[in-house]
Amino acid sequence: MASETDIKFVIVPGNGAGEVTCANWYGWISNKLKHAGVQCSLRNMPDPITAKESVWLPFMEKELGCDQHTIIVGHSSGAEAAMRYAETHQVYGIVLVSACVTDLGIDNERASGYYNRPWDWEKIKVNSQIIAQFGSVDDPFIPWSEQEEVAKGLGSNLFKFTDRGHFMQFQFPELLKLLLSLVKNAS
Predict the structure, then answer these.
(1) pLDDT tier for residue 5 given thresholds of 50, 70 and 90
(2) Catalytic-role residue among 76, 77, 98, 156
(3) DSSP states of 133-165 as a string?
(4) pLDDT tens digit string along 57-99?
(5) How many CB atoms lie within 10 A of CB 37?
(6) What is the per-residue pLDDT for 6?
(7) Is 166 a catalytic residue?
(8) What is the CA radius of gyration of the chain?
(9) 30, 89, 98, 139: which one is catalytic?
(10) Which domains does the chain have, with CATH numbers?
(11) What is residue 171's predicted lDDT score, i.e. its pLDDT?
(12) Per the residue annotation, which of 69, 75, 89, 166 is the catalytic one?
């Protein structure tokens, strides 16, 4: 088991986020984690509109340093990137926000490459000690049935909300509480 000082977080945003430090809750949570003395990486992603798997996964490995001590916090397209990454790489954990399993019939999502084959739930579970998920039934982009399918496939600890939409708020205290508890429990 990793020690508290070994754990690091990498936040992988959704596509189209623009400057990630100012988008949604990403910068807020990164600053809160750093203030608590926890290592956290948050960077603008290459190919930010289509979020191609062939671009994002190598970037996560080589530039963001995702490894067996990393908890990847992925939002929307970033959640799919976290799951695909964990299919082939050992990570400490994945925390998914607004995750889905299909391209939802959207050409740009299809072009990303995440949805062109079945999800290997067993490999993801083997490679991740911790799997948690946040979803909201009123998400205007991701149907609840898609989020439930992720939870079923991964056996994830699903935090269900009814009023958060696509989690595009500027603060996310429930996620922060979970992340800090994961660090504490790792020691």
Answers:
(1) low
(2) 76
(3) EEEETT-SSS-HHHHHHHHHHHT-EEEEESS-T
(4) 999 999 999 999 999 999 999 999 999 999 999 999 999 999 9
(5) 9
(6) 87
(7) yes
(8) 15
(9) 139
(10) 11-185 (3.40.50.1820)
(11) 97
(12) 166
